[in-house]
Design goal:
This protein is mostly beta strands. Helix content is 3%, strand content 46%. Strand 25 and strand 26 form a beta hairpin. It is elongated.
Length: 404
């Protein structure tokens, strides 16, 4: 079988720039270049060595000769092309395993494409021969899940996550802490690379509960952050129940909203943080939870984590008539409800919910602090309702009684 060493320029599309990446690939066919490849420049620039490596597959792609002119031409052609696809990825190394989580964010439809993920070693020295080279850079060690990649069809504004854990013990990796991960998306017909990016290494992946975007979150359940590996503070200080809260932010109504008092603990294994608000969450209220970067025991930083979530509909603790920022009248009501910002707070939206949480009235708009919002309730059945008021800086839910 023939082994080819080539410098493959991953597409420079959109906002992502790639340097040439040295890849190594075994080919099971004798034709060089393989069938299906589009070649720019002189094919004599390919370096071919006769080896006993078997079982490889023929990838399909565009390659360019490794002279400056050919590389620059290919580079400039790619960089002038606009893409509507973003790739964000993170990976962690634990023992001989590499865990990869790649998020693809398409802003247009990309059908019949393949996602290729390559695990590379930055520098290798154990594969030198007799030509005077003493080290090799960005050497491919494994394609994930294999050389065929993952065939997908991407739909506009529908994110796709691909997650893999690969065991590198059967590869020729020399140092597990010297690995990087490259990802690119390729058209199966034209072989064009639509987008590419490097994955960001993290000291430990983690799962936030509730997840970002979650709704109907229990008003009483604790919030958790579960790490794959033990963590410590950046710089090496141990994380304890006394200092773990310094990593956390919990607010109502987004990152600029009101602070929510809480207590936080970390387990003895240093892998689980539990956040317990001092009182129940407020029904139907949006919350923002942030965890700052820490690091694993090898000193590799973790990434920031953010979860925006909304509490469940609940009647527990709702106020009868008046809150600090907004008020309404009359209560009980039979014909109309009038909502006001007490001359101090602007109102963006007012929503009336039934006892089961169903929306029965909604009014959107930017109402000045001295304006009132009137809601017609004359045709609603008698019973208990809930008035959800959204302002610029606050959000409240109040109990309403409608009589007949």
């Amino acid at each position: 079988m023939k082994k080819a060493f080539l410098s493959l320029v991953l597409g420079v599309l959109g906002m992502n720039l790639f340097a040439p990446v040295l890849l190594q690939q075994d080919f099971s066919a004798g034709q060089m270049p393989p069938s299906g490849w589009m070649v720019f420049g002189n094919t004599a620039n390919w370096v071919i060595s006769q080896t006993n490596n078997a079982g490889g597959v023929i990838p399909e792609g565009k390659v360019t000769a490794t002279n400056t002119s050919a590389v620059n031409t290919a580079f400039n052609t790619s960089i002038s092309t606009i893409t509507y696809l973003d790739i964000q990825s993170q990976h962690e190394v634990q023992g001989n395993n590499v865990t990869i989580s790649a998020d693809l964010l398409p802003y247009a439809n990309y059908s019949n494409v393949t996602v290729h993920i390559a695990v590379l070693e930055r520098i290798t020295t154990g594969n030198i021969a007799s030509n005077g080279e003493t080290e090799f850079h960005n050497v491919m060690m494994k394609m994930v899940p294999d050389a065929y990649g993952t065939a997908v069809s991407l739909n506009a504004n529908q994110p796709l996550n691909l997650s893999y854990t690969v065991d590198m013990s059967s590869t020729n990796v020399e140092e597990m802490d010297d690995l990087i991960v490259a990802i690119f998306v390729q058209d199966n017909s034209t072989k064009e690379i639509y987008q590419s990016n490097y994955s960001v290494e993290t000291g430990s992946m983690f799962t936030m509960t509730p997840a970002n975007g979650a709704t109907n979150v229990s008003i009483a359940a604790p919030l958790t952050i579960q790490y794959h590996q033990a963590i410590r503070m950046i710089g090496g200080t141990a994380i304890t129940n006394n200092n773990v809260a310094s990593l956390l932010t919990l607010k109502q109504n987004g990152p600029l909203g009101t602070d929510v008092p809480f207590t936080a603990t970390i387990n003895s294994a240093k892998t689980l943080i539990t956040v317990t608000p001092n009182s129940n969450l407020i029904s139907l209220t949006p919350y923002y939870l942030r965890v700052a970067p820490a690091e694993n025991n090898s000193g590799i930083p973790t990434l920031e984590g953010i979860s925006n979530f909304t509490a469940e509909f609940s009647t527990v603790g709702l106020q009868e008539r008046k809150a600090g920022n907004f008020s309404f009248y009359p209560n009980p009501a039979s014909d109309k409800l009038v909502v006001e910002g007490n001359g101090r707070f602007e109102i963006k939206a007012v929503e009336l919910l039934s006892a089961t949480g169903k929306s029965v009235r909604i009014m959107n708009g930017n109402f000045a602090a001295d304006e009132t919002v009137t809601i017609d309730v004359a045709d609603l059945a008698a019973g208990i309702y809930y008035l959800r008021i959204t302002g610029k800086q606050s959000h409240e839910t109040l109990k309403v009684v409608i009589n007949r």
